[in-house]
Amino acid sequence: MTESTPYTASELLAVMSGRLLTDGQIVFAGVGIPLLAATLAQRLHGPGLTILFEGGTLGPFVVAGELPPSTNEQRCTRRANMLLPITDVLLLLQRGYVDVGFMGGAQVDRYGNLNSSFLGEPSNPAVRLPGTGGGNDIASLTQMIVAMKHEKRRFVERVDFVTSPGFLAGGTTRADAGLVSGGVFKVVTDLAVLGFDATTKAMKVDALHPGVTPDQVRDNTGFDLHIDDSPTVTEPPTDAELQVLRHLDPERLYTA
Amino acid sequence: MTESTPYTASELLAVMSGRLLTDGQIVFAGVGIPLLAATLAQRLHGPGLTILFEGGTLGPFVVAGELPPSTNEQRCTRRANMLLPITDVLLLLQRGYVDVGFMGGAQVDRYGNLNSSFLGEPSNPAVRLPGTGGGNDIASLTQMIVAMKHEKRRFVERVDFVTSPGFLAGGTTRADAGLVSGGVFKVVTDLAVLGFDATTKAMKVDALHPGVTPDQVRDNTGFDLHIDDSPTVTEPPTDAELQVLRHLDPERLYTA
Amino acid sequence: MGQSYLELREATAARDRSLREKVMTLEEAANLVNNGDHVAIGGCTLSRTPFALIWALIRAGKSDLSFSRSITSTEGDLIFASGIGKHILTSWFSQGIVWGISKIMRAYTESNRAQFEEWSHMSIGLRYRAGAMGVPFMPMRSMMGSDVAAQLDNLKEIDCPFTGEKVILVPALNPDVALIHVQRCDAYGNAQIDGLQFMDIDIAMAANKVIMTTERIVSNDQIRRSPDQTKIPFIAVDGVVEVPYGCAPHECFGMYEPFFDHLDMYATLTKEKSEEGVAEYLEKFVRGPADWSEYLSLLGMADILDASRRGRSIYND
Amino acid sequence: MGQSYLELREATAARDRSLREKVMTLEEAANLVNNGDHVAIGGCTLSRTPFALIWALIRAGKSDLSFSRSITSTEGDLIFASGIGKHILTSWFSQGIVWGISKIMRAYTESNRAQFEEWSHMSIGLRYRAGAMGVPFMPMRSMMGSDVAAQLDNLKEIDCPFTGEKVILVPALNPDVALIHVQRCDAYGNAQIDGLQFMDIDIAMAANKVIMTTERIVSNDQIRRSPDQTKIPFIAVDGVVEVPYGCAPHECFGMYEPFFDHLDMYATLTKEKSEEGVAEYLEKFVRGPADWSEYLSLLGMADILDASRRGRSIYND
């Protein structure tokens, strides 16, 4: 195994996210990085892993070079095990059949809350974003992995609007609000893999990606972030991982 | 039209019940007399009438000579418009898509309450009957027609157990209990067609069948029953009606 | 049953929901059921009854099981008479309308040796549906004012916080085990169901364990060619058993109708000899046969051919 | 919306639910929609969007309509820009992930000229489902603690009377009208739907009026030959219109995929010229054409053939 092959930030996100998935899990994934990560995991170490698409697809087989453009069109249904009404796919989350949900967002805060609804004051926003979709339901009802670019404007002290609940105000506030299961499991960025303190539920660095310094992470984060003095460093993407990714997305639609 | 053709009590029940149905209605029917009545209405004056079976069948075409033995087997589904899960068929009643439900019972009382659960004291019954099935749901959620033999042991002051609610204790008690729609529309027997007082909701005779005397009805009823001094008399089954019935049930499975 | 949401989540998280083959024998399937479990039975009355599984549970000598089903037929008699269960939650219980009231159901319930817990048909369906949806209850508008509701202690009546209307809340029912018979499924448990579905899908999604018998195991490729025909997903299924005529003497839509001669024989036997009759029946047809094939041969080739001819005829139009 | 149960029952009782032919033109169908109605839109994002019906509503000059849909795409831009509606209840609103945020949605909502009422995806589905079931609300376990819930005034949080757990109740949504597009239905409205169902069945059963467009009207005999394939029953349908390519430029499962070149053109037009761009689009593609065929000819034969080839390819495996 060599570590010399160059890779893009998106490829790094997909690889690091994929490593968080284990065989046999049911993974609720959107298109793009989440689907690439889940499919990568399926091909390399999780043949029994099942992908769920919000549009109503359970267990599709993702054909290399034919990645679907969204989760709600027929391309997502190629060789699927089952198609369900949208409400029933989302109810699988509530019933507890799903292990991991994959999310992104315009903003994430110290406690893993995500905003995809409003930038600025919600009553008079600078930008009206497209909204929650199934994000709120996924974040409320299952373990979630957040994959996004690590930028100061995205990693904020407090999101302008809690579209998808993380640990809310930290501590036990999530469970107190009635969200007794699920929560943010990990946040994967192009700089690091982040987790949450077991008690305070504040975001912290689990590991830095190769060549990334603690200061780099702090400079790109809008709130205080705990980083160990000698933080662990992630294994760089392997040739095997990159080969599978590039086989899946030969035109670099999502990994450019 | 001649009135000379002899007919059985079951044929009389089927004919008189069928006359209560109008074209275009959605009729929730069990097998036997209800199905014969609904099909008779369909053939003679209600081509747009739709039959619903509890087992999950919407709009079957009943083939003459092939009457189904129950509402939950494949024979009920012949040339149906749709098959639904049982819960969803029953929800059609709750949603308001159904106009009339057809019921029987071991006992009926002054207020049209039906018992098909226990004879005697429910905690220590003389007879444990098969139970409500969908009867309680039908009686709770739609207009109902009760078709049964007119016997004193069946027409009782108060049923031993309210399996399927009629007007409960009469007056507004049905609506007060939360059953804001539906109710017993008519009770059809081999002696008379009975309705309910608009205010007290007590059962009363609407019309006697040909050749039946008021005393005959009283003698076969376990509670005081209002009968007009000069009660109307029903039109006897016509040849046309009897011909259709006998075409539908040539082996007299349900009309012997 | 009566699990908290966290308990339900934990039980589900603990199940192996991976894409894996789970084909087993009837005996192995019966071993998945623990004494004391609440077992939900798929199908309705004489249709798609998972008869082979109930047959296997009796042969395995299970005990203290409780059961639920939309409508209960002869399998209910056998459950009481064999002693595997003393409690059945259902909306209607007898062999079938044409055969009158079950003498066995009467004998056991009237003597309080067993319980027939009566709920309205829709309320049973909504209890399974709430369980399948992962919510603790479902609202409904029937049963109010009736003695059916009055004798049940786990119903709640509330005023709707939106409209002020009275509604009844029925609690979720998440069976420990669901027994389902289908026409086709693959080795993972992806099931296609033809014709009437009854409550099978809600039962399967609500249960903490699903045992599926099937007339035929088809390839996963065939399932994937028409995924919109899959009614129950493999992630909810824990065991798959291929059992031809797995509903006999009941029916399986499009494959065989009820074995009416056999059912008439059973009706006569129990009418004339009541408990003694059902005991004979259990000995001869359930405990006696060496295996399922021997049981089917007792039903007789002529009846099997006749039931199959009638069953397939639904597609003759 | 906001009807009492009795009002809902009366509205349903007043509908002609008889087995009758109800085939009509797009214009006649548009006349079934009254100004001020709440209109639920079937499909999701770019899939099985009843585009021809929305096209017809705009051409008919409807006003004061409010809308709801699981996920809203370009049809939402056209609703705002055409002026037929100023309120859309949905979970996500933009052309599609690959095209970024809708400039039109932003322009109208940020200036408060129109409202995008945001609910979680599942909560919208459960509101339709409650409406379809004839209950006033549905319980659920998401949205708690979020600002999505905080900014909605018609949610209730209760402690479950059975378990004491916190649950959210969402109110039933019974649209005045539902717009649904299917691959096949008969002249009575019995519909078969291939592939992804989205929320269409609940929407149809919840609505007080259902207008159905279909790629093809088939015989009732064909429907009756496989009744277990009927997804929406005729009793719930008030109008049927045969409209080939009735979702274009969106997709209809198994028949045609989205017209991507056209959608790219629309994205560029609205990104570069925003409201002016969508006005041009409405003039050229919606108000301009003499009829649906002329609209399709503007999309172009090459694109129609390409979208159809891609659409049918789902069955090539």
Explain the layout of strands and helices.
The complex is a heterotetramer, with two copies of chain A (256 residues) and two copies of chain C (317 residues).
Chain A: H1 9-18, E1 26-28, H2 33-44, E2 50-53, E3 57-58, E4 82-83, H3 86-95, E5 100-103, E6 107-109, E7 114-115, E8 118-119, E9 127-128, H4 135-141, E10 143-147, E11 155-156, H5 173-176, E12 183-188, E13 192-196, E14 203-208, H6 214-219, E15 232-233, H7 239-248
Parallel strand pairs in A: 1-2, 1-5, 5-10, 6-11, 10-12, 14-15
Antiparallel strand pairs in A: 2-3, 3-4, 6-7, 8-9, 12-13, 13-14
Helix pairs in contact in A: 1-2, 2-7
Chain C: H1 5-13, H2 26-31, E1 38-41, H3 51-59, E2 65-69, H4 74-82, E3 85-90, H5 103-110, E4 115-118, H6 121-133, E5 137-140, H7 147-150, E6 156-159, E7 166-171, E8 177-186, E9 191-192, H8 200-206, E10 210-218, H9 220-225, E11 230-232, E12 239-242, H10 260-287, H11 292-299, H12 301-312
Parallel strand pairs in C: 1-2, 1-8, 2-3, 3-4, 8-10, 10-12
Antiparallel strand pairs in C: 5-7, 6-7, 8-9, 9-11
Helix pairs in contact in C: 4-10, 6-8, 11-12
Question: What do these coordinates show?
Answer:
Chain A is an alpha/beta fold. Chain A has seven helices and 15 strands. Helix content of chain A is about 25%, strand content about 20%. In chain A, the strands form three sheets. Chain A has a ten-stranded mixed β-sheet, sandwiched between helices. Chain A has a three-stranded mixed β-sheet with strand order 7-6-11, with no helix packed on it. In chain A, strand 13 (about 190-195) and strand 14 (about 205-210) form a beta hairpin. The longest helix of chain A is centred in the N-terminal third of the chain and has 12 residues, at about 35-45. Chain C is of the alpha/beta class and about 325 residues long. In chain C, about 40% of the residues lie in helices and about 20% in strands. Chain C contains twelve helices and twelve strands. In chain C, helix 11 (about 290-300) crosses helix 12 (about 300-310). The radius of gyration of chain C is 19 Å and the shape is globular. Classes of the chains: A alpha/beta (about 260), C alpha/beta (about 325). The interface of B and D includes residues 58, 79 and 82 of B.
